[in-house]
Amino acid sequence: MAKRRKQRKRGKQASYASTITFLVLVAVIAWFFQDNQPGDSKKATTQQSATTSVGSSSSTVSTESNSVVNTGAVDYGHVDDVHPNESLAGSVLTDTVKANLAANAVHFNGTGAFILNNDDSDLDPNVSSAMYVNLSPVDNLQRPGVANALLTKSARQYKNRVTTGNASKIEPVGWQQLKIGGRYQYLYNRGHSIGYAIAGSVSGFDASEANIQNITTQTAWANQASNGDVNNTGQNYYEGLVRKALDQNKRLRYQVTPVYDGDDLVPAGSHIQAKSTDGTLNFNVFVPNVQPGVAIDYTNGSAKVVN
């Protein structure tokens, strides 16, 4: 009996040892295959992790002073969007464009444009001069440069273009028109630096859409948005502020500078400033030349609808 008990005990001990050995072996094999999974599978897992990380922070525009950046893929939005999102608006703010803006602080305003230097213009409206519009000569690529104006209410034009003989048009450099549908239907407008309604009555100023010194290839959003709509701040919104100030008999300086990235034919956007002598009008902004739902090649103006 004692002998049989010893044999059973040794059998149980052997069984326990075998079980432990088996479990250890399984753990070692599992560890080996986890650390040495097939290359494509492991690469895919790594890429998925990286993509998730980038996706959570890509295409953002920092609102910190002097640190506007665009990273990762652009979120183009949709052609029916009211205004560009921060990703699309910031996509044109390359290092070159930021250097041309020479702003110490750049902040996305949430409605399509960027506020520069806390919206404080560096223009001096208290100059001793009669009303004027001064346009820079086009450069060797036929691109318009900075446009300056000193304006009063008498500069305003309320009549139709046809009535005043300002209805002629040109196709500015980079003009490759594209039907996009949505709220604007077509991608490009003949974008004026100094607008017809603002300065169409200034003597000697050609306010037509055929003035090569005053017309750029500008997106429909950047040009048209939006008369009186604070939720859609394209160039027309800021021109509306100027029109209102002039109608209130303000005297003001106004400046629009098309900003290019290198030798691109289509501007990345427009740097727009205005300041009245009494200080009630004062803004300093950058309106990006973008269109929701559309990818633009600024080197030549070609584009495609992506959303």
UniProtKB/TrEMBL annotation:
Q: Positions of the region Disordered?
A: 40-66
Which Gene Ontology terms cover its molecular function? endonuclease activity; hydrolase activity; metal ion binding; nucleic acid binding
Q: Could you tell me where the Low complexity compositional bias lies? A: 44-66
State the UniProt keywords alphabetically: Endonuclease, Hydrolase, Membrane, Nuclease, Transmembrane, Transmembrane helix
Q: Which residues form the DNA/RNA non-specific endonuclease/pyrophosphatase/phosphodiesterase domain?
A: 124-305
- Quote the InterPro entries the UniProt record gives: DNA/RNA_non-sp_Endonuclease_sf, Endo_G_ENPP1-like_dom
Transmembrane region(s): 14-33
Listed Pfam families: Endonuclease_NS
The protein, known as: DNA/RNA non-specific endonuclease
